[in-house]
Design goal:
Helix content: 40-55%
Strand order of the largest sheet: 1-2
Number of helices: 5
Strand content: 5-15%
Order of helices and strands: HHEHEHH
Distance between the termini: 41 Å
Number of strands: 2
Radius of gyration: 16 Å
Mean pLDDT: 93
Oligomer: single chain
Largest sheet: 2 strands, parallel
Structural class: mainly alpha
């Protein structure tokens, strides 16, 4: 679909020589924005450009840190364990916003 291809190129810097690169992100944003059955769905990303685009499109956005804060608040995981997992993610080259301490996940 041309609209998805446009999003992939304009928002996510997709190129013609790598047609699948960022295709999932573009498709997901398109579906959340345009399919009624996905109204109110969240866009979860740690990519600044993707977050900015989704917010501009009035899509509810969350980052990994937000998901961990919710999980800690709901008692699904302890703050120290969540903080440790986030540090492991960062060590594996995931580019996410890290809290300064485990306590920052209790917001």
């Amino acid at each position: 679909m041309r609209k998805i291809a446009r999003i992939r190129r304009a928002v996510f810097d997709g190129t013609d020589d790598q047609p699948l690169k960022h295709l999932g992100e573009a498709q997901t944003c398109y579906v959340i924005k345009n399919w009624a059955s996905f109204t109110g769905s969240w866009w979860i990303s740690d990519d600044r450009d993707a977050i900015r685009y989704a917010k501009f499109q009035n899509i509810i956005t969350r980052e990994t840190i937000d998901i961990f804060c919710i999980a800690v608040a709901d008692g699904d995981i302890g703050a120290a364990e969540a903080f440790g997992l986030m540090k492991q993610m960062a060590a594996c080259d995931r580019h996410l916003r890290l809290p300064k301490s485990a306590e920052d996940l209790r917001r």
